[in-house]
Every structure is written in C-alpha cells, then in structure tokens.
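FAQ: What does a ligand-bound record look like?

Like this one, built around cobalt (II) ion:
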Amino acid sequence: MAVYQATASAPVNIACIKYWGKRDTKLILPTNSSLSVTLDQDHLRSTTTSRADASFEKDRLWLNGTEEEIKEGGRMATCIAELKTLRKEVEAKDAHAPKLSTFHVHISSFNNFPTAAGLASSASGFAALVASLAQLYALPVTPSALSRIARQGSGSACRSLFGGFVAWEMGVKADGSDSFAVEVAPQSHWPEMHALICVVSDDKKGTSSTAGMQRTVQTSELLQHRIKHVVPARMDAIKKAITAKDFDTFATITMQDSNQFHAVALDTDPPIFYMNDVSRSIIALIVELNRASVAAGKGIKAAYTYDAGPNAVIYALQHNLREIVNLTMTYFPQSQAFNDPFSLYAKGQGVPGELP
Ligand code: ADP
Ligand code: DP6
Ligand code: CO
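The answer part, i.e. the structure of the complex:
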C-alpha cells in the first residue's frame, strides 16, 4: 500500500509595515499593503505533516499534539478545500495520478516557539500547512499562487511563503486574485540584516489578531487615516530603502509603523494594549542607543518593532549586533525583576553565543 505523506516547514515573518484590518473577512483581503522580513533560522518555525488515506473518515488536525476542530467553512477548511481543488486539476490532466483529492487528510503541526503569543505563529503555521499539502498533492504552482491560499488561512501567512524581504500587495479586486505576496529582495541582497527576537512573555495574547483588527476596523478613525494617507507612501519608501540598503530609512519607517500600529490598537474601542512595561523599556533603550549613535555621527543602530503582543523584534546590522545583544542582556537579563522569561534569538548567520 502506498503511503501519501509530505512534511514541510515554514518560518515566521515579522512585519515592518503592519497588516492590521480586513476589507473582506472571509477572503482575508487587507485594508493596506504590508511588508515583512522572513526569519531564516530554526528558532521560530512550524513543521507540518499531511497524510492522505482512503481509510480516513474526515479531515483532522493536531496542533502541538492536541487535536483542533476543523470548523466547516472556517479558514483551515477553506485552505484544505482550495488545495484539493488544485489536486483535482492535476488528476484531470494525468490519468495515472492517484485520486488523492477524494481522500481525507490528517494533518499534524508543531511550532517550536510559543503559539498565539504575538510571535506570528499563524503566519508560519498556515504557510507550513499550505506548503505540506501542495507537496503531498504535487501541485505545479508558484509561491505567489500558494501565498494566495495561505492568505485565506491567516493574512500574515501569505508572506511566509517567501524568504528575505516580502511585500503583501493588498490588491484591488473583490475576488482577491491580486492580493498575494511578492519578493522585494532575497535575504542575500542584504545579508548583514539581522533580527533579534526578545521574548518578553510567551503567554497567549488576550485579544487575537483576528478579533483585534476587526474591532479596529469598526471603531478606529485613526485606522482610516493610516490606510489612506500613511501606508502607501511608507510602502514605497521602505522598498526603496531595502533596495538601496539604507538602514537609517529602513529603521525609521519600521519604528514609526510599529508605533502607529499600536496607536491604532489604542484608538480601538474598547482599546487594545499589546505592549507591556518591559516592551516600553526596550523601546526606551533603543531610542537612547540611537540618539547617542546619531549624535556621534554614526547613524541609527537598531529598529524595534512589536506585533500583536509584548515581544520585541529588533532589526540591526551585523556589525552592531554584539553591542545590542550585550545592552539588551544587561538591562533585561534572564533573571530580571519583571518575572518574565526573557530569551534572545538571533537571526542570520549567528546565534548569541557565536556572534561576530
Ligand atoms: P500569532 O501572533 O501567534 O500569529 P494569532 O492570534 O494571529 O497569533 O493566531 C494564532 C492561531 O493561529 C492559533 O490559535 C491557531 O489557530 C493558528 N495556528 C498557530 N500555529 C499553527 C500551526 N502550526 N498550524 C495551524 N494553525 C496554527
Ligand atoms: C500585528 O495575520 O495574525 O502581526 O489574518 O486574522 O489571521 P489574521 O491575522 P494575522 O495578523 C497579523 C498582524 C500583525 C502584523 C503583520 O504581521 O503584518
Ligand atoms: Co498571527
């Protein structure tokens, strides 16, 4: 008996221009374009195995070893259905292809980092899911086509199908056919760029991204200003900064956009607070580091950004990493007073113990 099984893994991505707001909640079409960096090390990844078998009675999913319901008409069901439709096309063209589209699937996924804690588990999770089913079904599709499917699982997931610097172009069409991710530049274009992930808390967030952004769309006037008058120019400017490897501009825009995203969360009714005191202290530390560096004529050294949670991601160039890691560890050592776990991961060629 043949075994039809495939495993795929996808890393998280951390946005510099944040996606926050849907114009279509079913298709997951955003109210603004966004741009992120996909992390390339093994610290923050989802690994998903999918198996199709004639004996399976329904589609089933296990997340970190616990079974999760696949809700009818829900995001997971939509992604699986889209991929089965593409498999049918393969079977229609090739009479020898096994009829996997008629079998149910069992899917098992593990995250090697906290789930639903503001570290983008929905991004790596749905990207890995879509990639594993695409592999199982031997689909002849481009990463952008897969990204359109991953988008319907979790918006941010569409960007994790690419490495390096990635834009999710919001598109204008009602059917979502022009809303998918594209590569802005591969990681090799700017290999000096690193991301430090500072885990301030690995608790599950109080307000999920999905619920939070929906409330923002319904209640925040600031969001309307942001999507019309702020994000389009920032998207253009940050793409140019990446192309030119202009860290000062990249960092300035990244920090501005993190700040505005959290301002928009605060402008939501009732307000949403994703950052905590530790998050704000890390911002103060980076601001002071940059102030001193700019005053000394050396330019900006680090850019903080926060997703829907208290954990900091710090973008920095390789030659400044050691200083930033030391500084961060000095102010927020493992045993620090906040009684929060605080660990540090480095993206790029090194991990903290073996930095340049
Ligand atoms: P995060 O900040 O971690 O992305 P979200 O609130 O956006 O948090 O999404 C968390 C949800 O994403 C989880 O409750 C789960 O439904 C889904 N998810 C997380 N990891 C995976 C995975 N590996 N496979 C499938 N779905 C996942
Ligand atoms: C703050 O992609 O998790 O991380 O589409 O509802 O699943 P859903 O939301 P999700 O939102 C991510 C929000 C963010 C910013 C970003 O990643 O761009
Ligand atoms: Co998410």
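Follow-up question: can I read anything off the structure? Yes, for example: The longest strand covers residues 45-53.
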